[in-house]
Amino acid sequence: MTQHSCRFCGASLHHSFCDLGMSPLSNAYLTTTQLNLMERFYPLHAYVCEKCFLVQLPEFETPEQIFSDYAYFSSYSESWLQHAKKYTDDMCAQFSLTEKSQIIEIASNDGYLLQYFKEKNIPVLGIEPAANVAKVAEQKGIPTLVKFFGTTTAQALKTQGQQADLLLGNNVLAHVPDINDFVAGMQIALKPTGIITMEFPHLLRLMEHNQFDTIYHEHFSYLSIIAVEQIFAKQGLTLFDVQELPTHGGSLRIYARHTTNQQLPIHPSVTALKALEQQAGLDKITTYQTFAEKVRETKRQILHFLIDAKRTKKTIVGYGAPAKGNTLLNYCGIRSDFIDYTVDRSPHKQNHFLPGTHIPIYAPEKIKETRPDYVLILPWNLKTEIIEQMAHIRDWGGQFIIPIPHLTIL
Known about the structure:
By secondary structure, the chain is of the alpha/beta class.
């Protein structure tokens, strides 16, 4: 058996957190011509480091392979756009950002967030490795650097006189295999009095709410304050505030500054959240070892329901084609024998097939045509938005299936 090392502290990884078997890359959607070709599957096995408590996946595929041509466009979720706009307003008010400030976003996607700073005439720069996604941002007038972020990119920007007053990244910290180089890059790209904000799913909520489907190959790390504080401190950065957010089933927004910048005192929220994690046992290896059985039980519940539904001739379709849905379906072995098709609002996914399961993806209108008995909501973090959009399934007695944290029929 291959011995893996912790990507932060280098310690050997002995302790399993969750083994989800073999799975394809979660955003590797297939065209019709690819259906009969060989598909690559990789181990989807998360470990926890006994030294720093970072939960992580070993790197089986390079970021270049995963992210260079990307199927996820942030602007197709209304609730996510609202979240981005509110963030922009909050940051401008809290940190007095003006037309003289410089905003840099790492993993800026299609400009979903920077467009709101641009509306306020604040200079922006996006850094986005996926050229197909960056092109959409450029079309919105948002200057975007098509590169992976790390010390090399950060040093090049600094040499050109570009450093950030506000350096931000939403759902990117978990996506980088070399987390030390990434955080060191942020330290370089930040002005002496600048501020960093990062948002990422909170490991504590993942464990509490059984969100195992957020484990996929793009997410190299699963983050707690206990781990993140150590990672930032190593690079001369201090966490001075933290907020809990409802996004993605429970996320954190951390605020960081140069350790040498004493103007921003450490808020009690940092100590309080760390204490909460310790109370939940995130500083003890035994806590992590109980998670796997919860995951197996959820799989049994889902399959039991689907088998019974199909035996009684019920029709089931999916809503959404998110990465998390691909983890769930592949781990549970749910293919088109259970789910006829799924739908997605993004035209970039429509007329493709889900990786591994080969379930076809259509536009949402398809549901009205076929009038299924059940709609399985794969992006359960957007269930409120989706149930509202798809309320018409009630007209023919249709019901929604929510798979996480446990099987619920609505």
